[in-house]
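Worked problem 6 (solution included).
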Amino acid sequence: MTRLAGLSWAEVCTRRLDRHQLISPRRGGSPADAVAAMCGAHAQMPSAAELSIGLRCGGVSRADVRAALWTQHSLVRTFGPRGTVHLLAAADLPMWTGALAAVPQRSGFPADVRLTLDQVEDIVAVIGRVLDGARLTVDEMTAAIVAALGPWAGDLVMPAFNGLWPRWRQAIQTAAYRGVLCFGPSQGRNVTFTSPARWLPGFQPADPETALADLLRRYLHAYGPATSQHFAQWLNAPRSWASALFDSLGDRLESVEVEGTPGWVTAGDSEGGTVTDLPRVRLLPYFDPYVVGGQPRSLLFPGRAAEGALSGGQAGTLPVLLVDGTVAGVWHHRVSGRLVDITVEPFGDLDAQQRRELADQVARIGDILEGSAQLSIGTVAVGAHA
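Solution. The predicted structure is:
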């Protein structure tokens, strides 16, 4: 690994904003292009994912994102980094599944609940069979899996938001990482699952070693300079495993210091952004990848932002105001019909240019949500999202 000169935090922010398409949202760019650039859009809250994508694509609305997902199938809704629901670019799904299936998984379930490795393999195999050419609800999948494997698979032992889930659902993330499961369109209030091969003919997970190297390269392109520990946190992977992966790439990585702290980029990709006359203000929704993947937290959330925009050190639990790529406030929106009320709480004073750019961002959010937005400056009383 080669050591290079350092970058200022301003240069790092400009570099990341540019690569996330947040400096100049790409006019005519597709939702899939934006999702690929940010290494997946966190989609536990679908409306937040729609905003993350729309803010990176000029002229794109939430209807365009939904069309890309359910009509064009250029996006796939599945389990991504950290086991959380993400929108991923369909063209990247071989890389994602090849890489994520190779990341060591840790079970937090007690021994009397936890699946054995053989049980996981059996469940994933059944999921692959029953979803081949089909779209099933959770209840339909439970019935099929229990019929194939026995009552133990349906035991209600998993603590969940609304009670207990059947035991087999511990394997659902593994099934997604193996490429045999993704989300289908909801059936009323019921979540459905299907096989990504229905929409992606010939789909196969990529070779794990190649996929991991590709995923790390893309992560460093979007979030670098970063350390192996940052990468481990982003993936929820063991730190020792991530460190070994970085070491295995040898001279394909280069070291760059950020304000005296070392990080890594891919070889030949060490340039910072040029800090001149760039748009300074951006509004990002819940769990936007720029903040969830952004490190170091001490630089991204300076001063009051560490207390006002982080929840127990977790980023993304509140929508944030960025000024020059650094968190400088929080915001919240409420939709009533076509009216979108947006309240922004800056952590410091905004100058005239920043207020103009804030008004532009508010208008853009209204466009994405297919409504008309109005801005208020004041205190955001809504708490952090779990």
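Discussion: Residues 2-11+209-266 form one domain.
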